[in-house]
Design brief:
The complex is a heterodimer of chains A (496) and B (507). With 496 residues, chain A is an all-alpha fold. Chain A is built from 17 helices and two strands. A two-stranded antiparallel ribbon of chain A has the order 1-2. The longest helix of chain A has 33 residues. In chain B, helix 7 packs across helix 10. Classes of the chains: A mainly alpha (496), B mainly alpha (507).
Chain lengths: 496, 507
């Protein structure tokens, strides 16, 4: 190893920030600026890969950044789940940067330097969350993620963007300071520490039953607002005012995954799977997660705006992870953890296709997209692959988490969850596949005059730089299906 | 070395002697330069004093060689040394800042008188902290207050409401001082002495209506001076309409010194030997909590940024009172930590406000639109200091809140500690609201267009104003990263105060 894992952790956190300054300095030369972004993305991925491989071989690198007061420190300690999240985030940042470059240039968006700078800052925050060794570090980087993504959400700077940004900030900061912070403090009061520990911190706490654990778990589950557990989900559909690269990456991969990663980590490393199962505090949240899954899917079916529909679909899919965490059985947790990976790939594909359709055909409403399939076969095929992953059809990656969650819920004795998951898949088919089916089957809308090929005028296939990243992640979902075995083995140490 | 023998009194005497000298200097740079030099000398002296007291323990100095109980004795313990260093430090930062700010807001003609009054104010504040004689506290409190009334009134050049604000402050401040001196009179009647340590010895074990009345008068009088809710009415207007440099200085020192005086009387003079001290502690807890929420809530809806920050100051005083109300060494230490940190935060914030006022001539929220683009450095410092006010980790404000929460959890309180903790956290949310409004206007709104439609003109702030602001903002972050030194020092001071309170005098 040329570089120790500890150094790699700090380097991976620092590099995007250096890249951010580089982007700021290269404001006048867009090509250099974009090059810096891509170079930073690749280098960060390599560093994270180093850490990931070390963790995969059993290493648990730790590094303390600074100690504010005795007992209060910013510390990083990497374990399998965090390394997985970091790998997904940094890897998909490369894909997303390529997509952003094309999208922003293709749509001639303003403020691109600020855009790329905020992205770099957001990646550091996401990696900080992934590598966090205690709740304080997690909280600090969690807030940093909210603040660094705010300029991205309000990028367009019009009234709608600002309104969306206000809801975004209001809900995320409100839940984090109002619910998560008290939960962190309360944990500190009960156990004397905020360090993450596999098996939980509460093993030594006497008489840990009754309302206290339940309320504490609730504070964590709702306080981590980025996990979009209903009813604290409205920030997500409102964040769709952002440009599509933001939605694709942050709200399919980095921000929302940071949220559910947080929930899963709290469940495993603060409470401990055994504690959740024995005290039964996971029960109410299993119900809430199921409700969230179904209600969000139902709302998704009513949305005509494609990005809004995908946003509600994300709310529903994120609750799968929360469900897995709250079931707290071995296979259930596996389902939640693998869902982080599978959903990231699937949803990113879908969002990138939505952006491609907007760029090529200037349609955001599904009702306008009828019949465009013939003109944009590649885009819509990638969409279908991504949709099948979300629905849970083999050979796409999304089928595994669903399968694991069903087994996990049967292990926990919750047969109704299986029903919920099947219902969810059915609803997913309706609201995700319907647009694609109508795109291919329906004739183009009458208001558009067709040319000789039967294509609606003005609709052509999406440009290559939109298709390439979308197909990368779409093929990724198929690849992950076959590599799921390796992923499961990698996640073994986490499971009870 | 003979000068350093008089070290305890030098930080008080130096600005006192310099003030009339300053009034005689030519207007403009000479007056400012002299005043700044004096403030720096005072700061160095106060810093040496702090180091000496931290190593050697409490310093005692008899003025004129006349010993207690007849003579006036200066007694500087660790908490006093911390506050003195803080006040002198704030002066050392604000005086350089004041140069261009005062030229713009007050004008050159009155600057010698202004700096002279400023030095008198500094004297008064240092004197309140340094002295060990109760009546001397009153004298210095009035010295600082009277000069403050004049300083606030000098804002009338920019806004005539400063005169009303100064007059209101004068009336209310005098009422407070009168209550205080009545209480002192009653105490003198009961004990026959004005020396604080002597009073403590003679009050020990006594409990009658006269002492209780004295206690009530003193707490009320000092409560008004430190802007305890609901005795805070003078503060928002005074801070809003005073010149920027004056607000930056007062916000970080005036109420803190009153808090210190309250600590001194509660623990050194009265101590726990009096049964009714608990009434005061209960009162502080309730009024502290109410102040935290009510003042923050009012601040959220203000349209004037200076007024918003002034109400925020009232809320922050609530935190200090809350710390004192725990009646533990950790609680007092938390109050002391917040005294220091709040001074750092608020001075940086008001300096940023002063910079914006210098550039655009207004401190209403509507004038802050687009400041993020026009004055990025100032806006950045405002946001960082604002984050410190909210209590984000890695800033000084977080350290204060953390120490306060730890103290709450360790103390046995009439209400569950966890409830206090949640209330502290909830009030931070309100701080997010009002800091967020300003940050939103600065960064996310476009600068107001000119009357003829042309874009807003380029503006700038002089270097001399940016540097002190930047240093104070950096200090916030530094304390946020490495707070161990400050916290352990304040804990030592808190222990000493509590030990004195329990009957033993820490010498």
């Amino acid at each position: 190893m040329i570089l120790t894992s500890e150094a790699a952790i700090l380097a991976a956190l620092l590099l995007p920030l250096i890249g951010m300054i580089g982007v700021m300095l290269a404001d006048r030369s867009p090509d250099l600026r974009e090059g810096i972004t891509l170079f930073t993305a690749v280098s960060t991925f390599v560093l994270v890969l180093l850490v990931f491989l070390d963790v995969a071989h059993g290493g648990r690198p730790e590094v303390t950044l600074l100690e504010m007061l005795p007992g209060l420190d910013i510390r990083f300690a990497v374990e399998p789940l965090g390394a997985l999240f970091a790998l997904i985030a940094s890897g998909l940042w490369i894909v997303n940067s390529a997509y952003s470059i094309g999208y922003m240039r293709g749509n001639d968006e303003k403020g691109q330097t600020r855009f790329y700078m905020s992205f770099a800052a957001a990646i550091t925050a996401a990696l900080g969350i992934a590598f966090a060794g205690n709740l304080l570090t997690f909280f600090v980087f969690y807030e940093a993620l909210t603040l660094s993504t705010f300029p991205l959400v309000t990028h367009k700077r019009d009234a709608k963007a600002r309104a969306g940004g206000r809801i975004y900030l209001g809900i995320l900061i409100g839940t984090s300071i109002g619910l998560l912070l008290p939960a962190v403090i309360w944990t500190y009061v009960l156990t004397g520490t905020t360090e993450f520990q596999l098996g939980g911190l509460f093993a030594g706490v006497a008489d840990f039953r009754g309302p206290v654990p339940l309320i504490l778990l609730g504070l964590f589950a709702f306080g981590i607002g980025k996990a979009a557990l209903m009813p604290f989900h409205p920030w997500l559909p409102n964040a769709m005012v952002a440009p599509t690269p933001v939605s694709a990456f942050l709200h399919a991969v980095a921000v929302v995954k940071a949220g559910v990663f947080g929930v899963l980590k709290v469940a495993l490393y603060v409470f401990g799977a055994d504690t959740i199962r024995e005290t039964g505090i996971g029960e109410p949240f299993v119900w809430i997660a199921c409700l969230s899954i179904l209600v969000a899917s139902a709302i998704a079916m009513t949305q005509d705006n494609l990005k809004a529909r995908l946003a509600y679909s994300t709310v529903s899919q994120l609750s799968y992870v929360t469900l897995g965490a709250m079931l707290a059985t071995k296979v259930g947790i596996l389902g939640g953890a693998t869902q982080i990976a599978a959903h990231a790939l699937g949803k990113m594909t879908l969002f990138m296709c939505a952006g491609a359709i907007y760029t090529a055909a200037h349609h955001s409403l599904i009702s306008d997209m009828r019949g465009t399939g013939r003109a944009m076969p590649w885009t819509w095929t990638a969409y279908i692959i991504g949709a099948c992953s979300i629905i849970g059809l083999p050979p796409m990656a999304g089928s595994w988490p669903k399968f694991f969650l069903m087994i996990g819920s049967l292990d926990a004795g919750h047969q109704f969850v299986v029903v919920v998951l099947i219902l969810s898949s059915l609803m997913n088919i309706v609201y995700l596949l319907a647009p694609a089916v109508r795109a291919f089957m329906d004739p183009p809308p009458v208001s558009q005059t067709g040319n000789a090929n039967g294509h609606a005028s003005g609709v052509r296939e999406a440009p290559l730089w939109c298709l390439f990243p979308a197909w990368t992640t779409a093929l990724g979902t198929i690849a992950l299906f076959f590599f799921m075995d390796d992923l499961v083995r990698y996640l073994e140490p986490l499971l009870p | 070395m003979s000068v350093l023998d008089h070290l305890p009194v030098l930080p008080v005497v130096v600005p006192l002697v310099a003030a009339p000298a300053c009034a005689l200097l030519p207007k403009g740079t000479p007056a400012w330069g002299f005043a700044t030099f004096v403030s720096w000398v005072t700061f160095v002296l106060a810093a040496i004093l702090l180091i000496t007291v931290a190593e050697a323990g409490t310093l005692t100095y008899a003025l004129g060689g006349w010993q207690a109980p007849l003579g006036i004795v200066y007694r500087i313990d660790l908490s006093g040394a911390i506050v003195m260093a803080l006040v002198a430090g704030m002066a050392a930062f604000v005086f350089p800042y004041a140069r261009q700010s005062v030229l713009k807001e007050i004008g050159e003609a009155q600057s010698p008188a202004f700096y002279s009054a400023f030095l008198v104010c500094l004297t008064g504040l240092m004197g309140v902290v340094a002295t060990g004689d109760a009546f001397n506290v009153f004298v210095f409190l009035e010295i600082s207050s009277l000069s403050t009334y004049a300083l606030v009134a000098m804002g009338a050049r920019q806004d005539r409401r400063a005169l009303t604000a100064a007059f209101t402050y004068l009336v209310l401040g005098t009422i407070g001082a009168t209550f205080f001196v009545i209480g002192l009179g009653l105490l003198y009647q009961m004990t026959g002495t004005l020396n604080m340590l002597d009073m403590h010895e003679r009050l020990a074990g006594q409990d009658n209506k006269v002492i209780r009345a004295a206690f009530a008068f003193i707490v009320t009088g000092l409560g008004l001076k430190l802007a305890m809710f609901p005795l805070h009415r003078w503060l928002p207007d005074a801070y809003t309409f005073a010149p920027s440099a004056v607000t930056a200085f007062l916000a970080s020192t005036a109420t803190k010194v009153a808090v210190y005086a309250m600590l001194r009387f509660l623990f050194t003079v009265f101590g726990f030997s009096t049964a009714f001290s608990n009434v005061a502690f209960g009162l502080f807890m309730v009024l502290g909590l109410v102040g935290m929420f009510a003042a923050s809530l009012i601040a959220v809806f203000r349209i004037d940024v200076k007024q918003m920050l002034a109400f925020s100051s009232v809320a922050q005083v609530g935190y200090m009172l809350l710390g004192i109300s725990f009646a533990t060494a950790d609680g007092v230490a938390a109050a002391l930590v917040h005294i220091v940190n709040h001074a750092l935060m608020k001075s940086a914030l008001f300096m940023a406000v002063g910079c914006v006022f210098y550039a655009v001539g207004s401190h209403r929220l509507s004038a802050y639109k687009g400041i993020g683009k026009r004055l990025p450095f100032t806006a950045g410092c405002f946001v960082i200091a604002g984050l410190s006010l909210v209590g984000v980790p890695l800033t000084a404000g977080f350290v204060s809140k953390f120490v306060l929460i730890e103290a709450a959890l360790d103390a046995t309180l009439p209400v569950p500690s966890l409830l206090i903790v949640f209330l502290i956290v909830a009030s931070s949310l309100l701080a997010v609201a009002y800091v967020g409004r300003v940050a939103y206007a600065m960064f996310l709104e476009d600068p107001p267009a000119q009357a003829d439609g042309s874009p807003a003109p380029a503006i700038s702030v002089p270097f001399g104003m940016l540097v002190p602001m930047a240093l104070l903002t950096a200090a916030n972050v530094y304390v946020g990263i490495d707070a161990e030194g400050l916290v352990s020092l304040c804990r030592q001071a808190g222990d000493a105060l509590m030990a004195a309170g329990f009957g033993g005098i820490a010498l």
